Structures are given as structure tokens and as C-alpha cells.
Amino acid sequence: MQNPVLEAIYRRRSIREYTREDVAPEALQEIVQAGIWAPSGLNNQPWRFALIRDEQIRDKLAQLTKYKKIVQAAPALIAVFVDRDAMYDEVKDHQAAGACIQNMLLAAEALGLGAVWLGQILLNKEEVRRILDLDERLDLMAVIAVGHPTPGERRSQRKPLDSFILKSI
Ligand SMILES: Cc1cc2nc3c(=O)[nH]c(=O)nc-3n(C[C@H](O)[C@H](O)[C@H](O)COP(=O)(O)O)c2cc1C
Q1: Does residue 103 contact residue 30 with C-beta atoms inside 8 Å?
Q2: What is the residue with the minimal CA distance to atom 17 of ligand 1?
Q3: Closest ligand 1 atom to the C-alpha of 13?
Q4: Which residue lies with its CA nearest to atom 27 of ligand 1?
Q5: Dihedral of CA 32/36/39/45: which sign?
Q6: How far is ligand 1, taken at its centre, from the CA of residue 169, in Å?
Q7: Mutate which of 17, 18, 68, 116 to test ligand 1's pocket (most atoms within 8 Å of Cβ)?
Q8: How many angstroms from the chain centroid is the CA of residue 103?
Q9: What distance in angstroms lies between residue 15's CA and the mean position of ligand 1's atoms?
Q10: pLDDT tens profile 147-169
Q11: Separation of 120 CA from ligand 1 center, angstroms?
Q12: If pLDDT is split at 50, 70 and 90, which confidence band does 138 have?
């Protein structure tokens, strides 16, 4: 295959183990930049981000999820919120946040970094917001853990394409 976008889509895997190497601030900015170029309804861009490198904060956040080890191991975290004041339609704004997150995962892949979308931590989303000292209007969508992947192949599976296609008329 020769297409770099398709290659990145198929190559990307959730990365949950990282080396101790730091993530450059420029790389984190680039990932977020890719995120904000996602589509959004009415181009309302409801996403907001907290970029977290501080070890103590990472450790506090780690206590809020059963994926504690991933959060502790990742040198950087991106907490993705939607701003309720910027929203116009709950479903569409959440879809936009998902598109934004996927853009960021692909950007991390393109930069040779590894990332994983963490959703289980949403069970404690209010606590996450309080630890980050953010306004109540910010609704957590996900935390993305980012780091340099440890060596090794990651595998994932998908059901056959046919099993998803309802009709092809
Ligand atoms: C909405 C959502 C929530 C997720 N939450 C978690 C999570 O809390 N912990 C985790 O390790 N992976 C989480 N993942 C990653 C999935 O487990 C992963 O994408 C899936 O197993 C497919 O693997 P792949 O990303 O390598 O293709 C989440 C993914 C999505 C889209």
C-alpha cells in the first residue's frame, strides 16, 4: 500500500507500554494541532485539552482508573474535554470529540509515538476535573496516554468487513 493516511490508519495500535524517554513539548503540540483539525458540527470546535507532564498529577490521575499502570508509565497525558458552553448538540459534539481524539492517535503514530485512548477513567471524570482545577463546564471525553513505545509488535483484530455491512444495494 502506498497511501500514507491509510498506512497510518492500519498501522496504528493502542500502545500501553512506554520507554522512559520524555515526549517533546513540540510533539505534544503537534498532536493537539492534529486534533483541532478534526471536523465539528457548525465548525464549533468544542474540544479543550489539558496537557499533563507533571509526575505528581499523573500519579493522582492514575489512582482514578483500573488502568493505573498505563497512566503512571506514560510520560505525557492529554485530557480531552468538551466545553459545555461551546456545545450545540450533545450527540454531534461528542462525535466531534471522537474525531478529534482519533486524529490525535493518528498524529502520535505519524510522529513515531505510541498512544492509547483511555475511557474507563470517565467513571471518575469529576474527580479528574477537580485534580486539574478546571471549570465545571468542562466535560471529560477521554484521557490519551502518550509516550515512546517499547519495542515489540502489537496485534489487534477486527471482525470481517462483511459482518458490518448491512446492505450494499
Ligand atoms: C471509547 C474508547 C475507550 C477506551 N478505553 C480504554 C481504556 O480505558 N483502557 C485501555 O487500555 N484501552 C482503552 N481503549 C482502547 C481499546 O481497547 C482499543 O482501541 C481496542 O482494543 C482496539 O485495539 P487497537 O486500538 O490497538 O486497534 C478505548 C478505546 C475507545 C475507542
Answers
A1: no
A2: 14
A3: 26
A4: 13
A5: positive
A6: 32
A7: 116
A8: 8
A9: 10
A10: 999 999 999 999 999 999 999 99
A11: 9
A12: very high
pLDDT in tens, 88-117: 999 999 999 999 999 999 999 999 999 999
Domain spans of the chain?
A: 14-149
Among 108, 100, 52, 56, smallest CA distance to 76 is for 52
Question: pLDDT at position 126, please?
Answer: 98
For the CA of 101, the nearest atom of ligand 1: 31
Predicted local distance difference test score (pLDDT) of residue 51: 98
Fold of 14-149: NADH Oxidase (3.40.109)
The residue whose C-alpha atom lies closest to atom 4 belonging to ligand 1 is 119
> Which residues are within 8 A (CB) of 161 and not within 5 positions of it... i.e. 6 or more apart?
none
The whole-model pTM stands at 0.97
Q: Is the CB of 156 under 6 A from ligand 1?
A: yes
Q: List b or e across 108-146, with b for residues whose CB sees 16 or more CB atoms inside 10 angstroms.
A: bbbbebbbbbbeebbebbeebbebbebeeebbbbbbbbb
Question: Distance between CA 115 and CA 107 in Å, rounded?
Answer: 10
